[in-house]
Amino acid sequence: MGVVNRCEPRNSPFEFWDIGFEQIVLFPFLAKFKVGFRQSQFPADVLEFFTKITCDVMKRRMEDGESRVDFLQIMLDNKLPEDHNGTSNFSQNGGCLQSEKQGLTHEEILAQSLLFFIAGYETTASTITFLCYCLATNMAAQRELQREIDRMVDISYNTLSDLPYLDMCIQETLRLYPPATRILRACNQDTLLGHVNVRRGTLIAIPVYTLHHNPDYWTDPGKCLFQNGRFLPEERSSRTPYTWLPFGTGPRNCIGMRLAMMEIKVAMVTLVKHLEFHVTDDTQTPLTFRKNTILTTTKPIFVGLKLRG
């Protein structure tokens, strides 16, 4: 039976607000008008929900002295005093403007916490969907993944970190279907790149999808090849740098990368333990895509599900 990865009705607020989000991505200057008119990109009840959760956790950690090794703790450790006005002075350093403010305000911590969850919602869900599709169209890989997961005793951070074949399956899926087809970076100082002068402030678009499908860097780039060891350690070490960029790279890569990988692993381990994926008459092969910054298919992705015996 064909199953669509849709856990919300078609009038879901996630779909409604996704339109506004894409407008901001394509036309960033619109965000300034929203701020000027005190408009938020998110519904008030959503902001209230996340604000309450984050504030409760922050309060508990500060009052009880609780400390964890996570993103929120890093921000709390660098929180500015409550009497700080939140404004920044800037100094010139090598042609770059740098903020002299050392730390984060309460509002900035709330904003970053919200973004941390929002940024990984759709991208993680789409990666899980594409991976299920890849397994349905590649039964040999699915059998190998089943054997690896069946050997697990329980689901914990340590056991999830020791699933090399699942890691390779996820990495190959992210190569074929990167959630963001391109990423933007701003040049922070005048640079001579080859024979091209790049001025400070110039936006540089990095074509992630194109790099991931370039035959100069990948053998049979359009094929889903879980078994050929494309992401074995020795293969990764010999790969041309910066040709696999689903999370970006460098100091400004995706800050939610580890969280996203753990979410994908937990979901896939749970699914593969109990279900088998297979192609149905409604399964589209090959997939076709819309021309969006976020990779989306023109039609829903259908795969069949069957309980494992």
Automatic annotation (TrEMBL):
<dbReference type="InterPro" id="IPR017972">
    <property type="entry name" value="Cyt_P450_CS"/>
</dbReference>
<comment type="similarity">
    <text>Belongs to the cytochrome P450 family.</text>
</comment>
<keyword id="KW-0349">Heme</keyword>
<comment type="function">
    <text>Cytochromes P450 are a group of heme-thiolate monooxygenases. They oxidize a variety of structurally unrelated compounds, including steroids, fatty acids, and xenobiotics.</text>
</comment>
<keyword id="KW-0503">Monooxygenase</keyword>
<dbReference type="GO" id="GO:0008395">
    <property type="term" value="F:steroid hydroxylase activity"/>
</dbReference>
<dbReference type="InterPro" id="IPR001128">
    <property type="entry name" value="Cyt_P450"/>
</dbReference>
<dbReference type="GO" id="GO:0016705">
    <property type="term" value="F:oxidoreductase activity, acting on paired donors, with incorporation or reduction of molecular oxygen"/>
</dbReference>
<dbReference type="GO" id="GO:0020037">
    <property type="term" value="F:heme binding"/>
</dbReference>
<keyword id="KW-0408">Iron</keyword>
<dbReference type="GO" id="GO:0005506">
    <property type="term" value="F:iron ion binding"/>
</dbReference>
<dbReference type="Pfam" id="PF00067">
    <property type="entry name" value="p450"/>
</dbReference>
<feature type="binding site" description="axial binding residue">
    <location>
        <position position="254"/>
    </location>
    <ligand>
        <name>heme</name>
    </ligand>
</feature>
<keyword id="KW-0560">Oxidoreductase</keyword>
<dbReference type="InterPro" id="IPR002403">
    <property type="entry name" value="Cyt_P450_E_grp-IV"/>
</dbReference>
<dbReference type="InterPro" id="IPR036396">
    <property type="entry name" value="Cyt_P450_sf"/>
</dbReference>
<dbReference type="InterPro" id="IPR050705">
    <property type="entry name" value="Cytochrome_P450_3A"/>
</dbReference>
<keyword id="KW-0479">Metal-binding</keyword>
<protein>
    <recommendedName>
        <fullName>Cytochrome P450</fullName>
    </recommendedName>
</protein>
